Amino acid sequence: MAQQARTKTRRARGIPLFDRLQHETPFSHAVAALLRRAGLIALAGAVTSLFLTPVATLLATLANPPGSRTLSVGLGSDQLMLFLLAGLLFVMGHVMVLATSMNEDYERFV
Question: How far apart are CA 68 and CA 103, in angstroms?
Fold first, then answer.
């Protein structure tokens, strides 16, 4: 019973970025900051996955005798897509900063 109440509360709160876009003005510095933060998180995930794969393969084969240990380094489409997503989100955040300043300028005229 308590678990259902917590789940409903989480759903009601929503994701901060989309919640702000739905209930507040979409052109705000808070939305731009959330978009940039999402881009940085995606970038951190891509960089982390690049470094964790070789470390994981090295640790998995560390018990093998010398000469049969493995170090796997690779760049896959999942890392490339994360880099693309990170760049896109960061650029969208910058565009939102510019749009917010333009919107504030237009509101001064009206």
Answer: 62
Residues 6+ apart with CB under 8 A from 54: 71, 72, 73
Rounded to the nearest 5 degrees, what angle is found at the Cα of 56, between the Cα atoms of 55 and 60? 120
Tell me phi and psi for residue 81, to 5 degrees. Answer: -70, -35
- The predicted model scores a pTM of 0.69
Q: How far apart are CA 90 and CA 2, in angstroms?
A: 38
pLDDT in tens, 14-58: 567 667 666 667 777 888 888 888 899 999 999 998 899 899 998
